[in-house]
Amino acid sequence: MTKLFYVPGSTHAIDYAREIAGQYVSVYGGRTLAELAEEYPGVVLGDEDSFIEQQERALSTDPKEITETQFMDALEMLPPLHWMNHGAGESFKCPEFIAGNITTIYARLNGRYWSFQGVATLPHVAIMERIARAEAGTAP
């Protein structure tokens, strides 16, 4: 499992960690946890998966309704990631990432347009479920 240094509650990691002679040090600079704590109070050594879950919770947002023009501008600006059009729903993801695996996700469902920040790996079906809940007023 990959280890890294980060401050709990922060959306940015400080550095990855590698083990040298039984002790974890930062990849870029070779600093120990104690040395990093001088510059980053509260720093911890943790699993990358735990950090990513924390980051995703902090940066993800609820769907907000947007205009058709905003939707089309986003679709036509850059090549979209994972564009899907199935049934009454359409979704795509912005190829520019906010942090880590978080990007802006755009969707159309029942003639209404939406956007929110979420993980780039969120499947189309899950996107449509989130939008349907937002339409019904039961988000998240």
Compact summary:
The chain has 140 residues and is of the alpha+beta class. It contains four helices and nine strands, in the order βββαβαβαββββα.
Structural write-up:
By secondary structure, the chain is α+β, with helices and mostly antiparallel strands. A five-stranded antiparallel β-sheet has the order 5-9-8-7-6. It has a four-stranded antiparallel β-sheet with strand order 3-2-1-4. The radius of gyration is 19 Å and the shape is elongated. The chain is built from four helices and nine strands.
Strand content: 35-45%
Which H/E pattern describes the elements?
EEEHEHEHEEEEH
Radius of gyration: 19 Å
Secondary structure class reads alpha+beta
Largest sheet features: 5 strands, antiparallel
Number of strands: 9
**Outline type:** elongated
Low-confidence stretches: none
Contiguous helical run count: 4
Order of neighbouring strands in the sheet with most strands: 5-9-8-7-6
Helical content stands at 25-40%
Notable traits:
9 strands, 4 helices, five-stranded antiparallel β-sheet, elongated, 140 residues, four-stranded antiparallel β-sheet, alpha+beta
